[in-house]
Amino acid sequence: MSQPALGERSLDLTDPATFVDNDVHGFWREVRAQRPVHWHEATDRHPGFWVVARYSDIQPLFHSEALSSARGNVLDVVLRGDDSAGGSMLAVTDPPRHRPLRNLMWSAFTPRVLGEVVEQIRQRTDRLVSAVVELDEFDFAAEIADQVPINTICDLLSVPVEDRPELLQWNKMALSSDRADSSELDAISARNEIVLYFMELAQERRDDPGEDVISMLATTEVEGRLLTVEELAVNCYSLILGGDETSRVSAICAVLALIENPEQWRALRTGEVSVESAVEEVLRWSSPAMHLARTAIRDFDVDGTKVRSGDIVTLWTISANNDETVFEDPRRFTLSRSPNKHLSFGHGPHYCLGAFLGRSELNALLSALVARVGRMEQRGAPRPIFSNFLNGYESLPVHFESR
C-alpha cells in the first residue's frame, strides 16, 4: 500500500515519525515546486525554523558567511539551544578557528595511514561478505553494515577491540533509534558516554603517546597551544559520529536498492557500470543525512525571502539530491548517472572530513558483492530508523547466493 503524501498542515519535520509513516519524497517534490523556502512553524516543544529544499539554494548556502555552525549542525541540537561543543568540535566551529582545526584533523590522515586503512577496509569487507554467503538468512545491517565503519574509525583511533561494541550502540542511540519510545534524554546520555570515553582515552594517549591518530592530535599544537582533553574528546566523537552512522545506513540502502533494481545489480556485476560510478549513485539515492542545520548571524535573502539574524536555517540535502532541475528522473536508481553532483557529504568549508573513507567503504562493499555474490534476496521487511536526521534502515534480512 502506498504511503500518504505529507500535507503542509500536518507536517512536523522535528518528529521522527514523519519520516517513517509518510511519502517523504512526494512531499519534498511538492515543496520544491511550491514552497522551496518556507518557515516551519513552532511546535509545542520546539521553536520555528526555515526550511530550504532546492539544490540551487542549498549549495551556495553551504558557503555562506551569513550562516554559522557554532550553535549546532543537526536540527535536534540547534533547536535545544547552543551546542556545548561549539567552537571546539570541527563540525560546529566557525572561522577563523575552523581552518587551523580542520588542518590539524586532516594532517592525521596521511597517505600512509589512508593507504593502510583502505586495505583494511577491503580485507574486512571481503571477509564479512564471504562469511555470510549461502547462509539461509542473515541481517545485513548487523553482520556487515554495522561492522565496517565503526571498526574503520576505531582502527584509525586505536580504540581497543573490546570497547567497540559499546561505542557502536552509543553511536546508534546518539542520532537515531529503531524504537519510537526512545527519548531525547537517551540520545543525550549516549553522546555524553561517548565524550567521556574519549576524554579518558585522550588523556591516556597524551600521557603515553603512540603512533595512532589520537596521540598525534593530543601532542600537536593548534594556534600555539595543545587541544584540551575536552576538545580532543569531542573531535574524536565527531569522527565516530560522521564516520559510522552515515556509512552504515548507506551500505544498507545500497543492498536494498540493488535487490529492488535487479537490472542495476546485473549492470554492476557484468561491468557495464563502474564501481566508482555506483558509489556516487548510492550516496545520492540514500542521502543518509537528510539535513544540516545552521544559524543566521546576519540578515540575508534566500530566493527573495528575508532571513533574520538569529533564525535557524535547515538545508534539506535529501531534497536537493532529488531535485529534478539537477538530476534527471531522480527517483530512478541509475548506477551510471553522470554527472552526479550530490550533496550527501555537504559542500564548502564544512565538506565532510570522512568523505574519502565513506566512499572507500562503499567501494569495498560493492566490489566484494560483485566478486562473491551471484544473487541477493530480501527475506523480510527492513526496519526503518526512527530519526529526523538519518534516512534509512536499522535492519535488513537477506540471503546471499554464491557467485
From TrEMBL:
Keyword annotations from UniProtKB, A to Z: Cytoplasm, Heme, Iron, Metal-binding, Monooxygenase, Oxidoreductase
Any one GO biological process: cholesterol catabolic process
Family label: Belongs to the cytochrome P450 family.
Main location: cytoplasm
PROSITE patterns: CYTOCHROME_P450 (PS00086)
Organism for this UniProt entry: Saccharopolyspora kobensis
Any one GO molecular-function label of the UniProt entry: cholest-4-en-3-one 26-monooxygenase activity
Highest taxon above the source species: Bacteria
One GO location term (cellular component): cytoplasm
Record-linked InterPro entries: Cyt_P450 (IPR001128), Cyt_P450_B (IPR002397), Cyt_P450_CS (IPR017972), Cyt_P450_sf (IPR036396)
Compartment(s) of residence: Cytoplasm
Protein known as: Cytochrome P450
Database matches in Pfam families: p450
